[in-house]
Design brief:
Helices cover 39% and strands 13% of the residues. With 196 residues, it is α/β, with parallel strands linked by helices. The protein has one domain: Rossmann fold. GO terms for molecular function: ligase activity.
Length: 196
């Protein structure tokens, strides 16, 4: 029986992978603009940590909205990067793959600031856990760092700078745009961690 992680290649998920060292990582190309770099980064991290890495490719871009597909956000969007029901979709896809890999727990790298969206809250993950445990497969959904900031997670994990700098946080491109919420978070986090 294995533990798995949804590995996006961002600061939070790679720090969680370094900290918890699950046996399996799953990265999903669901049609997001930065998929190529997210996969490349996740592959490097998984190889470095000796984690079995699986990639799912399924184009859901026609269902997306906002920065993650470089389009205008729909009117219901609470922010420019919001993609309707995205975390629910990603967890479902990862569990669909994970059941055949013997995964009994899927870890998600959400942190406290992700609570800006309902699908980044501890309540959401508790509901997803109940749903996935109820169904055949009985996969547990956990969010070990949901009460931490990104800085706290990085410090707790002990991830070295050399690996952390692989993180790709840009929402809009395979090259950091330097302007989106993801790039801003990346810069602010490094500044808080390492600024002299």
């Amino acid at each position: 029986m294995n533990k798995g992680i949804l590995l996006s290649g961002g600061m939070d998920s790679i720090s969680l992978a370094y900290w918890k060292r699950p046996e399996i990582a799953i990265t999903i190309d669901y049609g997001q603009a930065a998929a190529e770099t997210e996969i490349r980064t996740s592959s490097v991290i998984a190889k470095e940590l000796g984690i079995e890495h699986h990639i799912i490719e399924i184009d859901c871009s026609s269902l997306g909205s906002g920065d993650l597909i470089n389009s205008k956000a729909i009117k219901e969007s609470p922010s420019s990067e919001w993609w309707p029901y995205r975390n629910q979709l990603l967890i479902t896809l990862a569990c669909m793959k994970g059941i055949s890999l013997g995964i009994i727990e899927l870890m998600i790298g959400s942190v406290k600031s992700d609570g800006f969206h309902k699908d980044g809250t501890s309540e959401f993950y508790a509901r997803m856990n109940s749903l996935m445990e109820y169904q055949e497969g009985n996969i547990r959904i956990s969010s070990p760092c949901i009460e931490m900031s990104t800085v706290e997670l990085i410090q707790k994990s002990g991830i070295p700078k050399s690996l952390l700098h692989w993180a790709h946080s840009c929402h809009t491109s395979n090259e950091p745009c330097g302007k989106c919420r993801g790039c801003n978070k990346y810069g602010q986090t490094l500044n808080e961690l390492y600024a002299e």
